[in-house]
Design brief:
mainly beta; 23 strands; globular
């Protein structure tokens, strides 16, 4: 695999749970910058709960590294793991009986920042797994596996990646992903009986879209239900319910290459998310914001590996107040600014291509203190 910025890779194959306590493997993991779990059998991974390996992987993330994986490696990276230790389950089987003997979970393997209450699923659309994720979510709510009586399913399509940064902002790459929220108790989730659950809230994340797991959105979803084990039609697409004024997300609308054509982000309720793409090497995207006296704005932009971009914060006249120009494709950019003048001022976020371009999306977060 040709991965930008990677100059070495070590592969470990562990054949027993006891291997997870080995000194050599844990030394290599702790020295790593990213740990990738291969596909295969997440039940084997779940047996590493409580081992030295679990702590070693957590130490990588704690030092600003990363963890992830594909298929089974995706499953193990959620706090509620569908472990498949009693065999796999299909959508039809899970909806017919959400307590099917093959529907088993392990909790407490990895708890990542901003990712509480989540159960992952993989090969999502290709293997028609929306229905079984709905069953996973209903079980997590019913059995108290997720805190606060709410659970989120995160299903990622094949050849797609959902990258979540240190601030909890998820950005979608390569294909689609889905976030499925269950925020109430199921009407029927009983062993031996078909599932009934009304009003799942579903966000479809296309390439370039973002989802803030730290400040999870309260709008932008479509709804689907399951009645007596039968799911609504058209589970994988829907018209999002419109957000009230003060939505927390904004996708760019071209042309927005100048202050005069800037996308209006002044109505966003912060923390907020901006998303777009830099289609050409001369593309620049402008967003208009406002900031009150004594308030500090923090802007953080995640740049995809396809290009190098720079971030500027401008005043109402177009003068640069702060800039971030880190070198290298995929380098993130961040600026902060405090308004000391009285009243409220207008400012512009300018995110522009420096080297390269492409259809891969970027995501920016706006925070205020």
């Amino acid at each position: 695999m040709k991965l930008a910025g990677v100059n070495s890779c070590t592969t470990w194959t562990l054949t027993s749970a006891a291997d997870a306590d080995g000194a050599a493997v844990n030394t290599d993991i702790r020295n790593a910058e990213f740990v990738f779990f291969a596909g295969g059998d997440q039940c084997r991974y779940a047996r590493w709960k409580g081992t030295a390996l679990e702590a070693s992987v957590e130490s990588v993330v704690a030092k600003a590294g990363g963890a992830g994986g594909g298929s089974a490696g995706h499953h193990i990276n959620s706090p509620v793991v569908y472990d498949a230790c009693a065999g796999s389950v299909t959508t039809a089987e899970a909806l017919a009986d959400p307590y099917d003997p093959a529907l088993t979970f392990t909790t407490g393997v990895f708890e990542w920042p901003s990712y509480a209450g989540v159960v992952n699923d993989s090969h999502f659309s290709a293997r028609d797994r929306m229905g079984r994720t709905m069953a996973f979510v209903a079980r997590a709510v019913k059995d108290g596996l997720a805190p606060g009586g709410r659970a989120w399913g995160v299903g990622v399509d094949e050849k797609a990646s959902l990258f979540i940064d240190e601030n909890g902002l998820g950005t979608q790459y390569g294909g689609d992903a889905y976030v499925v929220l269950g925020d109430h108790q199921p009407e029927q989730a009983t062993p031996g009986k078909p599932l009934t659950y009304s009003g799942y809230k579903i966000w479809r994340l296309v390439p370039g879209a973002t989802y803030d797991f730290a400040d999870r959105p309260a709008c932008g979803y479509y709804r689907r239900s399951v009645t007596q084990g039968v799911a609504d039609a058209n589970l994988y697409d829907g018209t999002p319910e419109s957000c009230a004024p003060g939505t927390a997300a904004l996708n760019e609308s071209e042309p927005n290459d100048s202050r005069g054509s800037a996308d209006d982000a002044t109505a966003l309720v912060w923390p907020a998310a901006l998303a777009g793409t830099l289609h050409s090497s001369s593309d620049r995207d402008y967003y208009r914001i406002t900031l009150a006296s004594g308030r500090t704005a923090a802007v953080h932009c995640d740049t995809p590996p396809a290009y190098d971009a720079d971030l500027y914060l401008l005043d109402a006249e177009g003068r640069t107040l702060q800039r971030s120009v880190n070198d290298g494709s995929g380098s993130d950019e961040a600026v902060t600014f405090t308004r000391t003048a009285s009243g409220t001022g207008t400012y512009y976020v300018d995110f522009e291509a420096y080297s390269g371009s492409g259809e891969a999306g970027y995501g920016c977060t706006l925070r205020q203190s």
